[in-house]
Amino acid sequence: MKKTVQRLAKAVSANAIFILVCVLLVTELLSFNWYYQAACVILVILCIVILAFQKSRVYSMRDSDAISQHQRDEMLMYFSREYFEVYVVDLNQGSYEIIRSSERHGEYIKHLTGDFGQLMEMAVVSWTKPPYKERFQQLLDTEEIKRRFESGEKKIEFIYRSYDENWKRLECFPVPDYGNDNRKMIFALRDYTDEMQIRTNEVLASEAMNDIYTLVAFRDMEADRYECGCHRMEDVMDFPEKGIYSDWVAAMLERIHVKDREKFLTELSDERFHREGRAECEYRIRDKGGEYHYYRQYNAKVNVLSGPKMVILIRNIDEFKKHEIWKAEQLQRELEAKAKELEMTRLLAEKSKDLEKALQQAESANNAKSKFLSTMSHDLRTPMNVILGMAYMARKHIDDEAEVDRCLNTILLSSQNMLALINDVLDMNKIESGIIEVREKKEDLVKLIRDIEVLIRNRCEENQQIFAIDCNKIEHKYVLLDKLRVRQIIINLLSNAVKYTPAFGRISMEVAEQPGRDETQCQVVFIIRDNGIGMSGSFVERVFEPFEREDTDLSGRIEGTGLGMAITKNLVDLMNGQIRVESLVNVGTKVTVMLPFTICDNSEDKDGHELAAAQGKYPGKRILIVEDKRINMEIVKGFLEDTGLVIDEAVNGREAVNMVSAATEGTYDLIFMDISMPVMRGDEAAMEIRRIDRRDCREMPIIAMTANALESDVQNSYRCGMNGHISKPIEPEEVYKCLNRWLIEDQKQIG
Questions:
Q1: Which residue among 145, 204, 382, 620 sits deepest, i.e. has the most Cβ atoms within 10 Å of its Cβ?
Q2: Which residue, 12, 3, 13, is CA-closest to 64?
């Protein structure tokens, strides 16, 4: 409005000047000669023309302002007359305003708005029939619409068929001047049924739909012939542009997936077409390259000048199927996530009642382990202090043979105690891992008990305790048992009795045989009693739990890990036995163990290995010791210095492999191999040796001699091609037993 006023002011100023000029010209006209008068007349005419132009310009600007004010309403009223649905779409905001809607009975309605994307999703679902649904997909991307309009495209339009069987035309075109700095678009629908009825013929159908469909064909049902209006299926199959319809169906069936053929014949049958006036089907077709693609066929009735015909529309829907599959996968993932969430909620609800109890158990276990670590630190440092102290004392009195011998005996005893503590921890780890196995063989039960008696009686005599044992009720001397594990059970129980019984106390063990479940079985009962400090009733209930030790004045001065009874209980269970503990404080303790054994005959076995071990001579045999620690090498060589063996040394796995490879075949009879070494580990070296293409390298005994003592370490040694496993600290008897096993045959020949 301000600009209009300024234009009018300028026009008024120009008119005033013009009037003044005219007055001056008239005055001059009356006073000068004829030629000067003629010039003045021309000038007046020119001024009149300028004035007329100025006025027309003012009127034009006035009219333009009027048009600007009424342009929107006139445009919308125009569309309201021509179209039954009119929307103004804000492409920037993705929203729309309803100008006219047939759902509102044609009333002119303002300020009804919504989300344009949701409107198009509703259009895909409910406005149109297949195969026109996909056309609305292009209207979901407003950014793409803006790019199309910016590139110069004037209109987006297409014709579709709605669910009410009527044809409709959709038109979208930009309105740049609509509103203030907004990108707007008119979205309008109008009925197109009459136009399609008039103009539907072979040419129109082909032109309208060949950009959508891979195939557009017309079938004359009376003559059973077809003719293609659009044919772009060359990559799939070859067939003529026109021909007999039944031949075309037969050609299609050859390409259609075998699982879709019955559906194709049923859903596109003439009976269904005549009954419903249309038919549609989705199926898979194999192209010339052997790959299957999804197609949708839609058969509809059209009226042309020559009469009603069937129009056949076929379209590739691979992209649509991919989208459907993607949506299905998304939905499946969402459902799975929901199911997992519900399951987690259910599990949490079920477990919530146990959380407090579990927390208490965890705290109890944590406290027990903390206590165990504290106890272990004390119990390991105690024998280590003795070992180091006695070593210093032996060095100090190196010339006193009796004192050195006493120190060495004490060192050996403390070392055995410390090793027992370590073995308890390792045994508990094996039991919890489930890798301990019972290995039974024929043993002399009475001899086993007498060997245990010697060991325990020595300890009792040192503590001034009375020890009695009775095994006269054993009827079958030889049974199948795991000697190591049975010995471990009995020694654990007797050792506890010795530790917790004061001086001058009494300890006893009664061994009795009872009948088994059949004639080949027997039950052996071990009853161990003491009159020591005993245990409280509450502690008896948890005596088999790991790391548990009852706090008493005496127990604080006794070495132990709190694992002995837990190990014992697990070993008894592993042997299908039973164990029961009865105890009273300051009265004593009674432990009853019952173990089932298989009875063997009473003939004694002569073990040739024991004879060879007693001799301990292997003349002419050559072995290789692979060890990176010099002190360990000296210890092993010290064990073997009187055996007659020829010993070679290697300090790592790579050196051992090179020595074996360079030696002539049959040079080495056995290899002792450490595992953890620099340059190359022992297990890697064993595998390298086994790969050497020589018979001796494939058959030569390789024995692991390592501090890796867990059952998993033993199994790893065997997996790497080794024949045995000796755990450090090394016992001489274990070394001799191994030599006897692998060198005994040659030893017999020499004997």
A1: 145
A2: 3
Of 376, 433, 416, the C-alpha closest to 710 is 433
Mean pLDDT of 453-465: 86
Nearest of 262, 295, 291, 296 to residue 279 by alpha carbon: 296
Instruction: Tell me the per-residue pLDDT of 211-221, one tens digit each, with 9 for 90 and over.
Output: 678 888 888 88
* Closest of 566, 563, 593, 565 to residue 486, by C-alpha: 593
- Please choose, from the candidates 439, 449, 536, the residue with its C-alpha nearest in 3D space to the C-alpha of residue 494: 449
Q: Distance between alpha carbon 518 and the CA centroid of its chain, in Å?
A: 52
Beta-bridge mates of residue 278: 300
d(CA 97, CA 276): 38
Per the listing, tokens 């259609």 go with 256
Instruction: Give which of 87, 95, 93, 167 is closest to 127, Cα–Cα.
Output: 167
pTM: 0.39
What are the b/e assignments for 19-47, b being 16+ CB within 10 Å?
eeebeebeeebeeeeeeeeeebeebeeeb
Q: How far apart are CA 169 and CA 188, in angstroms?
A: 8
Residue spans of beta strands (DSSP E) within 576-730? 578-584, 588-599, 622-626, 646-650, 670-673, 702-706, 724-727
**Exposure class string for 461-473: b at 16+ Cβ within 10 A, else e:** eebebebebebee
Alpha-carbon dihedral of residues 112, 138, 136, 170, nearest 10 degrees?
Answer: 70
3-state secondary structure 399-442: CCHHHHHHHHHHHHHHHHHHHHHHHHHHHHHHHHHCCCCCCCEE
Q: Per DSSP, what are the bridge partners of residue 307?
A: 304
Tell me which of 49 and 738 has the higher pLDDT.
738
Q: Pick from 437, 483, 458, 749: which is nearest to 618 by CA?
A: 749
Distances (CA, A) of 491 to 76, 311, 344, 469, 737: 105, 98, 49, 13, 23
List, for residues 398-429, the tens digit of each pLDDT value: 888 888 888 888 787 677 767 766 776 666 66
The candidate with the shortest Cα–Cα distance to 436, out of 708, 703, 715, 705, is 715
Other CB atoms within a 10 A radius of the CB of residue 433 amount to 11
pLDDT band of residue 610 (cuts 50, 70, 90) is: very low
Q: What is the dihedral of CA 185, 186, 191, 195, to 10 degrees?
A: -80
CB 246 within 8 A of CB 218: no
Separation between Cα atoms, residue 240 and residue 245, nearest integer Å: 11
User: 33 pLDDT band (50/70/90 cuts)?
Assistant: low
Name which of 560, 426, 567, 585 is nearest 496 in CA terms: 560
